[in-house]
Amino acid sequence: MGRVTRRQLTDLPGTLGLPISLALASILAALAFGLPVLDRAVPAERPVTPGEPYRVGAGVTVVPPSGAALDVTGTRPGETRGTALFQVGRVRYTIDVEPFAGDLTAAAVRLRQRITGISGHQITGTQLAVSTAGGLAGVQGGYTAGDRDGRYAVFVAHGLIIEVMVSGDDADLSSVLFVIDASTRTLSYENRR
To answer: Within its chain, how far is the Cα of 187 from the centroid?
Structure first.
């Protein structure tokens, strides 16, 4: 067995090692368990100003529907692309904007393929022409996903694709679709170059 020297017995930094280690472990545990609890305690939805255009990204704006709340977990505004996720009751209303080099037909095909590429999603009915109050031409249609129904619309403007997705159960969707359609008609592009 080894001998313990006087120096080892009086080594102050060595005696502080255990309490410091325990303090650091406690701080890390508090962060590991406390931050997720705090994150769940902070609501993800933020109110939006009624009648005010919301900047989705890349110069695209929309006036959110009355009664909508912005869900910050799915909203990412930006200079060249952006996403806005609104909750209207239990209905999700998403607008995605990103650079796109194709025409409206290619944009519609791309969105329809994206929808049908999700397990259980299928397109229903035919596409219809649609336009915004500012003159953006697009197409819209419907889809189903098990117990949820949805609507989609796509527009192409100045090298951008603007995709609109709306989903909810049939009863919820039918009660708010009118205000969401009115909101979609307010989509506009502001050339900031």
So the answer is: 17
Are residues 114 and 182 both part of a single domain? yes
- Inform me whether the pLDDT recorded for 82 exceeds 90: yes
Separation between Cα atoms, residue 79 and residue 58, nearest integer Å: 5
- Is 74 found in the same domain as 158? yes
pLDDT at 44 over 80: no
The parent domain of residue 63 ranges over: 45-189
Distance (Å, rounded) from C-alpha 114 to C-alpha 24? 47
The closest alpha carbon to 160, from 115, 95, 116, 114, belongs to 95
DSSP classification of residue 4: P
CB 182 within 8 A of CB 127: no
Contacts of 192 (CB under 8 A, 6+ apart): 59
Angle at 113 between CA 110 and CA 119, to 5 degrees: 150
Q: Parallel, antiparallel, or unpaired: how do β-strands 121-131 and 91-99 relate?
A: unpaired
Whole-number Å distance between alpha carbons of 166 and 164: 7
Say how far apart CA 172 and CA 133 lie, in whole Å.
26
What is the distance between the alpha carbons of residues 53 and 71, in angstroms, rounded to a whole number?
A: 16
The pLDDT > 90 percentage for the chain reads 67
Instruction: Report DSSP state, residue 169.
Output: -
In a domain, 51, yes or no: yes
pTM, two decimal places = 0.78
Q: Cα separation of 10 and 145, whole Å? A: 71
